[in-house]
Design brief:
heterodimer; A: mainly alpha; Four Helix Bundle (Hemerythrin (Met), subunit A); two-stranded antiparallel ribbon; 6 strands; 3% strand; elongated; B: alpha+beta; ten-stranded antiparallel beta sheet; four-stranded antiparallel beta sheet; globular
Chain lengths: 634, 380
């Protein structure tokens, strides 16, 4: 009969409890010295997480974002943090990485609010709070999601986050050789060549260990020899370690075939005894790496880790993804958009031509970074540019910037640069906020998994959102110019023409996008149109733009009215884009919802409505006073 | 397109004026917003019936406000007159004309779909065959002749017959069914008090209780109390029928055995579909669905092996079968296919192409003028 290590240890755990012995664990873990080995060597290790194969670096970033809302810490990168946490959990437990903005959450756990560290707390603090408030948490966790108060929701989230962190810290604990064997005789008997071993080292020794434990149980504890005591200590360490076996988040060992579609396994899963021979070989390689890293044999470690990495049967785009995150193009482009905006302000105030030239240069450079980022994402994901809400934000930004640059190229009057950098700043900023939610390259649900429709319908409608915002921004510019420079008729007329042009372009994309969406729905659900909120949202934009264009024809809408209408059109886009996800009805309900989005849309709408109405009324009042002035003069 | 004399054209101008279209658009947007918001309360089906598929919206029981269908009908004729009476073939208006023709096709297709569309679902367990699909919402009162050994003859009376006071009778059987009470959604409860003497069958032990309509419209369970006459003493009386009744109520008429009941409307097909295998995969290590697939045999004379999956429906004889849902974990896996027959199906395809071409022409003609190159004036 084959005993797995797990069964033997379960048995031993029981005997520890029966014998009533307690031992203090020695914390004898060497911390990795990152100054002597390049931690980046870990970055491109492939793991499977949330259904996707990704570099360890991406995993580190996303997890750190989840805990701390940042993708790096003050003095270390995400991957340094991750490796540190996995190889030296006890130090990591005291590291302040959990961002808790809501003080009520902190107080509920009985933790003192920490303003010095900007509301960040350590795992030790949180777990202590959780331990001493178990009953309260239990009550929250049995409540259905919908009935939880906001603070309770955050408490529940924190509870799961803290255990997610613990799981990460324990990923390698079965491989780290930190179990001391105090007795040289025992070391020899078990056939080890050193007196610090790992859980994994016991895998071939299962039968031997079982034999020793049985012998020990038959002895009187008063007559224990040094060896017996060492066995007892060992038993304690191993049982304690076994508690870590729930940690299966780090799926680093590939399946025997089809690494993309089959499940990978985590090191700890080997205690279940169901690894294949190939997987055991991978685990052995990993063990050597971990051991060498632990004992600071960095040279050996590097060669072995590189060998391990090259033996993994999946490499596609992994290095590219590491590069993508390292370049951080979207943050750089955000910085350049802000710079452009400042330059533009200086130019408007000073009128110096070279500053204008400089601003056009910075915005163009920023656009290049922005678009390069999108292209890199497309290559990494093997997808069209937009398949998630996050990507739609980045893409709409790029659309507006490109249209802005086209307008600037044709007109050279700062309008285009202004459009580009203001949209660039706002949307890149929102995009960064959204990326906190986790992996932005996640897998798609079945109905969305169609590159053909993603690249036709989704891209078209999202371009439509972008151009409608362009039209809306031109509407803003029109109102501003008509109010502050009412004498410049030529410029006002130019703005009006631009506005009409942008409206026509928007009508083209939104109409085409909406109809293509209907055709996709016909292909996948069997109906062209179902009055689903997302469909209605898209249709609302189309109808609004149709109303504006036809309102112009009837003469009901003239310059200021048309411009104010475009400003309000922005609200239609915001509603269609984000608002419908808040209703949580319908087949399209796969974007994610958050109460904050609702509030932001409301604020945005109020601002746009105020601008449209105040702008329109002020212009009309100016016109009437001018007319009455004229009549009094004549 | 038509050449009218100017004075006649002027008199008819009210038919094609964009003012009508402008007004219609505003009302349609109001309906769109209200109808969308109401979906959180009413569910998609009911709000669609109330705002979008209706000619009028009733207020205090009176049809006062125009529904989306009426608005779109007005837009349809407004557009038709615009195309016929006020579309001179000129270079700078050709784009608009093409767009208008495309939009006209789209509305036409919409009306064909609204009135000629049949849709429902077909659930098939693995290894079994089906040639019937079931409507999502519409009901029918079915009188089924079981006397024939090889097939059941079904006489059904659909939605419009099902209302309180309606009398259902047929030439092939002597019974008359008068609907006394009808609830669209109900609970069936054990009677607390003894039933009146003339109550028969299930009605002797059970009663129906009206409950509010569920926004998930398919969950509603219709029930009705029906007076049956023409079958003689002992059989005539009041019966209770309800959807998904576990006990069929049967009657003997003219020596034949009939099962009578209320159910979701069923549509027979003249071919059938056999489910060979249903497959579902998730992204590894997650619950996120990756694919749903039904491998089926289409049996129509011969057998044809086909694969139905997300975004890849099966089309046959005007019907389209889509992967809609599934059930796993029972004795056998079961696939649910959505079945649609839509005469207006091709219109969106045609009109999108036409509208696109039109808009493209219009943009090419208009944009260089609108997003003007400022320096052109100086250089030329």
């Amino acid at each position: 009969m084959k005993y797995t290590l797990k069964i033997v240890l379960m048995f031993s755990l029981l005997s520890v409890a029966l014998s009533g012995h307690t031992l203090q664990a020695q914390e004898n873990i060497a911390s990795p010295a990152s100054d002597t080995v390049d931690i980046d060597i870990f970055a491109n290790i492939v793991i499977q997480h949330e259904g996707r194969l990704k570099p360890l670096d991406t995993f580190a970033r996303n997890q750190l974002l989840l805990f701390s809302e940042k993708s790096s810490l003050k003095n270390k990168s995400a991957i340094e943090w991750l490796i540190g946490s996995m190889f030296d959990p006890f130090t990591a437990f005291n590291e302040k990485i959990f961002k808790i903005r809501n003080n009520k959450v902190v107080e509920a756990l009985g933790i003192e609010v920490d303003l010095v560290n900007k509301h960040t707390y350590s795992f030790s603090q949180i777990i202590e709070g959780i331990e001493s408030n178990r009953d309260m948490l239990q009550k929250i966790l049995i409540k259905p999601q919908a009935e939880r108060e906001p603070t309770e929701k955050q408490l529940a989230a924190l509870y799961f986050k803290s255990f997610a962190f613990l799981d990460i810290c324990r990923s390698f604990t079965c491989l780290i050789p930190d179990i001391p064997i105090d007795n040289p005789e025992l070391v020899q008997e078990l056939g080890f060549d050193r007196n610090q071993v790992s859980m994994y080292d016991f895998l071939p020794k299962t039968a031997k260990l079982r034999q020793l434990l049985i012998q020990l149980n038959e002895k009187d504890s008063n007559s224990f020899t040094e060896k017996d005591k060492a066995i007892q200590n060992l038993q304690f360490y191993l049982s304690k370690k076994l508690g870590d076996q729930e940690s299966i988040v780090l799926k680093i060992i590939p399946p025997d075939s089809d690494p993309v579609n089959n499940q990978w396994v985590a090191p700890w899963e080997h205690v279940n005894g169901n690894f294949t021979d190939t997987q055991l070989a991978y685990l052995a390689d990993l063990q050597t790496c971990v051991t060498n890293f632990h004992f600071k044999n960095y040279e050996k470690f590097e060669t072995q880790l590189n060998a391990f990495k090259s033996s993994i049967p999946y490499k596609k785009n992994i290095d590219l993804e590491v590069l993508f995150y390292k370049l951080d193009l979207f943050t750089w482009s955000l910085a350049l958009y802000i710079l452009t905006f400042l330059l533009l302000l200086i130019y408007w105030l000073s009128g110096k031509k070279f500053i204008f030239g400089l601003s056009v240069t910075t915005v163009s450079l920023s656009a290049i970074l922005h678009v390069t980022g999108i292209i890199l994402r497309m290559i990494i994901r093997n997808r069209p540019p937009v398949s998630t809400l996050y990507e739609s934000i980045i893409f709409v930004g790029a659309v507006i910037v490109i249209f802005g640059l086209i307008i600037e190229w044709r007109q050279r009057n700062t309008l285009g640069t202004f459009l580009a950098c203001s949209a660039g700043v706002i949307l890149q900023f929102i995009g960064i906020k959204f990326s906190i939610e986790g992996d932005t390259m996640g897998m798609l649900v079945a109905v969305l998994d169609s590159n053909f429709w993603l690249s036709t319908h989704v891209v078209t409608i999202v371009i439509g959102y972008g151009t409608t915002f362009v039209a809306g921004l031109i509407g803003h510019a029109y109102l501003a110019i008509a109010i502050f420079k009412p004498g410049n008729k030529k410029l006002i007329d130019l703005m009006y023409k631009n506005a009409v042009g942008a409206t026509l372009v928007s009508l083209f994309f939104t109409t085409l996008g909406t109809i293509l969406g209907g055709i996709w729905a016909d292909q996948s659900w069997g109906r062209f149109w179902g009055w689903d909120p997302k469909e209605n949202g898209a249709m609302l934009i189309v109808l609004w733009l149709l109303m504006l264009t036809h309102g112009r024809l009837t003469g009901i809408l003239r310059g200021p009215g048309f411009a104010a209408g475009l400003v309000l059109g922005n609200i239609c886009v915001a509603l269609a884009w984000f608002g419908v996800n808040l209703l949580s009805v319908g087949l399209h309900n796969y974007g994610f919802t958050e109460s904050q989005i609702g509030l932001n849309i409301l604020i945005f709408s109020i601002i746009e409505i105020s601008i449209a109405f105040v702008g329109f009324i002020v212009i009309k009042l100016n016109e009437t006073t001018q007319k009455s002035n004229l009549t009094t003069q004549t | 397109m038509l050449n009218l004399n100017p004075s006649l054209k002027k008199e008819l101008a009210f038919l094609y004026t964009p003012h009508i279209f402008f007004g219609c658009l505003i009302w349609l947007m109001v309906l769109l917003v209200v109808g969308t918001l109401s979906q959180t309360k009413l569910g998609i089906y009911q709000s669609q019936e109330l705002y979008f598929s209706s000619w009028f919206i009733e207020i205090f029981g009176l049809p006062i406000l125009p529904g989306a269908r009426l608005v779109m009908a007005i837009m349809f004729f407004n557009l038709l007159f615009k195309i016929l009476l006020d579309s001179p073939i000129k270079k700078n208006r050709i784009g608009t004309l093409v767009i208008h023709i495309g939009a006209f096709c789209l509305l036409l297709g919409g009306f064909l779909t609204a009135y000629g569309n049949v849709e429902g679902s077909m659930a098939i367990p693995e290894g079994e065959t089906s040639n019937i699909f079931i409507d999502y919402h519409d009901l029918e009162f079915a009188v089924i002749d079981l006397s024939n050994e090889t097939y059941d003859e079904i006489i059904s009376f659909s939605n419009e017959y099902i209302e309180e006071g309606a009398v259902i009778s047929g030439s092939s059987f002597p019974a008359k069914f008068t609907i006394k009470t009808f609830y669209r959604n109900s609970d069936i409860l054990r009677r607390s008090d003894p039933a009146p003497d003339h109550y028969r069958g299930v009605a002797q032990r059970f009663e129906m209780k009206s409950i509010p309509i569920d926004p998930e419209y398919e969950r509603n369970q219709a029930s009705m109390l029906v007076d049956v006459t023409g079958l003689g003493d002992g059989v005539d009386g009041t019966y209770l029928f309800f959807e998904n009744s576990p006990v069929p109520q049967s009657f003997t008429m003219n020596g034949k055995s009939y099962v009578v009941g209320i159910r979701k409307k069923q549509y027979p097909l003249d071919f059938s579909i056999e489910l060979i295998d249903f497959q579902r995969t998730v992204h590894p290590g997650t619950q996120t669905p990756k694919t749903y697939k039904s491998i089926v045999n289409l049996i129509d004379g011969g057998k044809r092996r086909s694969l139905i999956e997300m975004n890849e429906p099966l089309r046959h004889k005007g019907y389209t079968f889509y992967q809609a849902s599934f059930s796993e974990g029972g004795e056998k896996d079961l696939t649910v296919l959505a079945v649609v027959k839509n005469y207006g199906r091709m219109f969106p395809y045609i009109s999108s192409i036409v509208i696109c071409i039109g808009m493209f022409i219009h943009l090419l003609l208009q944009i260089p003028r609108l997003i003007a190159k400022i320096r052109t004036g100086a250089s030329s």
